[in-house]
Amino acid sequence: QVQLVQSGAEVKKPGASLKVSCKASGYTFTTYYMNWVRQAPGQGLEWMGVINPSGGSTSYAQKFQGRVTMTRDTSTSTVYMELSSLRSEDTAVYYCARVRGGESIAADLDYWGQGTLVTVSS
Amino acid sequence: QSVLTQSPSVSEAPRQRVTISCSGSSSNIGNNAVNWYQQLPGKAPKLLIYYDDLLPSGVSDRFSGSKSGTSASLAISGLQSEDEADYYCATWDDSLNAVVFGGGTKLTVL
């Protein structure tokens, strides 16, 4: 069965960087684009960007351009999301989510990781 | 402010039918497929409807989706207490080159 397992909760200081992992299993890793979506406490869902695990190409939301980097390791079927220059507003649950249709940038995300809580505080 | 507009909350009695709306523009809903998610408290979102009106395998047929122009709707019939959750619409926006979500609608089953 398809599973996306994310790394554990983190506490970071303002200005630091964050790297969250998402290990995929139960399907062919390179044939489904992977998105990152975050949710601040009590708030809605916010799309951060997407990575093509096959070639590594990425597309980021303008809000995060210059601060976010998404990478993948095909040998371990893992995608990573790195966010730099953290501020308190980055406190959120971060999710990885697979595109249902496979190799496309789209909004139908059929499998989600369990979420990683990131707290940014001095 | 979210690019897609949803009412913050809606409530209805058990066994009744409720509709949740999502309003956008020609660059998003008007030109791309709409998807709906259900998020139970403390859980990851779950895909409920994709391509405007299709149900993923395993999703109850009490849920249905529709779209007209730049607006979309999610209907839930035969409301049950377990339907209490936050519901989000989502689609691609051609102008922003981004996936956009509605602000979410909190459903309360009275």
Q: What can you see in these coordinates?
A:
- The complex is a heterodimer of chains A (122) and B (110).
- Chain A is mainly β and 122 residues long.
- Chain A has strands at 3-6, 10-12, 18-25, 34-39, 45-51, 58-60, 68-73, 78-83, 92-99, 109-112, 116-120.
- In chain A, the strands form two sheets. In chain A, strands 2, 4, 5, 6, 9, 10 and 11 form a seven-stranded mixed β-sheet that branches. A four-stranded antiparallel β-sheet of chain A has the order 1-3-8-7, with no helix packed on it.
- In chain B, the strands form two sheets. In chain B, strands 1, 3, 4, 7, 8 and 9 form a six-stranded mixed β-sheet that branches. Chain B has a three-stranded antiparallel β-sheet with strand order 2-6-5, with no helix packed on it.
- Chain B is globular and about 40 Å long.
- The model of chain B has no long low-confidence stretch (mean pLDDT 96).
- Chain A binds chain B through residues 35, 37, 44-47, 50, 59, 61-62, 95, 97, 100, 105-110, 112-115, and chain B through 2, 32-33, 35, 37, 39, 44-47, 50-51, 56, 88, 90-92, 96-104.
Could you give a short description of this structure?
The complex is a heterodimer of chains A (122) and B (110). Chain A is mostly beta strands and 122 residues long.
**Rough outline of chain B:** globular
How far do the termini of chain A sit from each other?
40 Å
Low-pLDDT residue spans of chain B: none
Number of helices of chain A: 0
Largest sheet of chain A: 7 strands, mixed
Overall strand count of chain A = 11
The protein's oligomeric status is heterodimer
Structural class of chain B: mainly beta
- Termini separation of chain B comes to 28 Å
Give the number of DSSP strands of chain B.
9
Helical content of chain A (DSSP H or I, runs of 4+)? under 10%
Largest interface by Cβ-Cβ < 8 Å:
A-B, 23 and 26 residues
- Specify the overall morphology of chain A: globular
SSE string of chain B? EEEEEEEEE
User: What is Rg of chain B?
Assistant: 13 Å
Mean pLDDT of chain A: 96
Order of helices and strands of chain A: EEEEEEEEEEE
The percentage of residues in β strands of chain A lies in over 45%
Note the main sheet of chain B.
6 strands, mixed
